[in-house]
Amino acid sequence: MKNQETINLSKLRITIILVVTALILSIPLIAMQFTNEVKWTLSDFVAAAILLLSAGFGIELVIRKVKTGTLRTVLFVVILLALFLIWAELAVGIFGTPFAGS
């Protein structure tokens, strides 16, 4: 029975990751309907979805595989830091790479 509970919990967390990603991506989609200052293309949505899903599934993998609290926390911080730095680079180009936006 414990194995079935673990599977159900994993399915729930994956569903939560997908729903939260969709909700975050709906913010610029809705904003585009009301202002011309938000101009996302399909590639912007795809890139954001890949980033958010990668971070979400990375955290899910850490939850499943890492049992030590300290190591788990460090990995969470690394994943979220990578997400925010990549997002900032794509948005405004804080590092000046060819992938920078604007």
Strand content: under 5%
* Overall average residue pLDDT: 91
Shape: flat
Helix segment count?
3
Which structural category fits the helices and strands?
A: mainly alpha
Termini, distance in Å? 53 Å
N to C succession of SSEs: HHH
Count the domains: 1
Using only C-alpha atoms, the radius of gyration works out to 17 Å
**Tally of strands:** 0
Keywords: Membrane, Transmembrane, Transmembrane helix
Transmembrane segments: 12-33, 45-63, 75-96
Report on this model:
The chain contains three helices and no strands. The chain is mainly alpha-helical and 102 residues long. The longest helix has 33 residues, at 2-34. The N and C termini lie far apart (53 Å). α1 packs antiparallel against α2 and α2 (42-65) packs antiparallel against α3. It has one domain (2-92). The model has no long low-confidence stretch (mean pLDDT 91). Keywords: Membrane, Transmembrane, Transmembrane helix. The chain crosses the membrane at residues 12-33, 45-63, 75-96.
Task: Sum up the structure in keywords.
102 residues, 79% helix, flat, transmembrane helix, transmembrane, membrane
Describe the structure concisely.
With 102 residues, this protein is mainly α. It has one domain.
Task: Chart the SSEs and their pairings.
Elements: H1 2-34, H2 42-65, H3 69-92
